[in-house]
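Reminder to self: tokens first, then the designed residues, so the page reads top to bottom the way the pipeline ran.
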């Protein structure tokens, strides 16, 4: 009998990718979605997923979606109160135990496992606290297998609507403003590649058991990112280094800024080639990602 898996946030980039990989490999997919009539949900159903409608606080929906599954891919959204994420994670773990699931794979964020870098840091500690709590409860769940995926900076953050939370001036003005010092780099990752890793971990729990993986591929400077955007779109993007005053005034408006400041103090780069070779998962370059999103990229930049 084909293995079956519950995919949370199944209409998102990570969950949708995991669902598609698993379906292509012959698995049964239970897709938990907030709106079963959305276009993304209907497409998953067309591909063969079994839809379950409910949010992360709907315990009966979670239990129904988890019934009979071999494993769960857990990808929770950030919440203002970290305790909410913890409560949601516990609901999925309880459902996994009731279903006698063999494994749980959770997606959090890179550096969650290095609290010395974010504890007490304005703009970072609130973000990471909930994710660290989720990781802890997954480790302690007592399931036969668990894996933790920690994605780095996601490539779709250059596209609208996400870019307004990361690069405020990019869409209206074509300016890539940042807080990096010269030469500092940030690891970039296609969110779909998180789904590919999650699918492999679900299908091969023994090979991934206990692995806590910092996920990233290309380590880019803002100048390299801007040049790649130009090569794909044909539209020039100007790069602007933010002043200390700008960083201070916009720190709470742009979630990316504290991470960029951290990159000035710590080497955050990730060896993506090593990840590909170790796990056999092909990762996506920034250029290939932008090319696949060419229409949305043009919408995310001012007209030439």
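Designed residues (304 positions):
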């Amino acid at each position: 009998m084909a293995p079956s898996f519950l995919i949370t946030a199944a209409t998102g980039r990570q969950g949708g990718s995991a669902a598609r990989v698993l379906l292509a490999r012959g698995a049964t997919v239970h897709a938990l979605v907030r709106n079963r009539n959305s276009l993304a949900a209907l497409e998953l159903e067309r591909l063969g997923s079994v839809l379950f409608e409910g949010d992360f606080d709907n315990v009966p929906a979670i239990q129904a979606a988890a019934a009979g599954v071999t494993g769960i891919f857990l990808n929770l959204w950030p919440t203002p109160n970290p305790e909410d994420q913890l409560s949601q994670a516990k609901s999925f773990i309880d459902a996994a135990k009731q279903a006698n699931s063999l494994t749980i794979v959770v997606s959090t964020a890179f550096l969650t496992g290095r609290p010395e870098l974010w504890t007490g840091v304005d703009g970072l500690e609130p973000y990471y606290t909930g994710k660290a709590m989720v990781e802890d409860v997954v480790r302690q769940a007592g399931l036969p297998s668990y894996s933790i995926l920690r994605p780095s900076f996601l490539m779709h953050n250059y596209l609208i609507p996400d870019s307004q939370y990361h690069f405020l001036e990019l869409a209206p003005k074509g300016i890539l403003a940042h807080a990096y010092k010269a030469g500092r780099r940030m690891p970039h990752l296609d969110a779909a590649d998180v789904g590919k890793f999650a699918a492999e971990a679900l299908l091969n729990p023994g090979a991934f058991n206990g692995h806590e993986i910092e996920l990233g591929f290309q380590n880019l400077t803002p100048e390299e990112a801007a040049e790649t955007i130009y090569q794909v779109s044909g539209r020039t993007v100007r790069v602007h280094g933010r002043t200390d005053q700008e960083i201070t005034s916009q720190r709470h408006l742009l979630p990316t800024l504290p991470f960029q400041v951290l990159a000035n103090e710590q080497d955050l780069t990730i060896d993506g080639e090593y990840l590909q070779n170790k796990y056999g998962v092909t990762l996506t370059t920034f250029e290939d990602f932008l090319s696949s999103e060419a229409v949305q990229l043009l919408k995310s930049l001012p007209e030439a």
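The longest helix spans residues 82-98.
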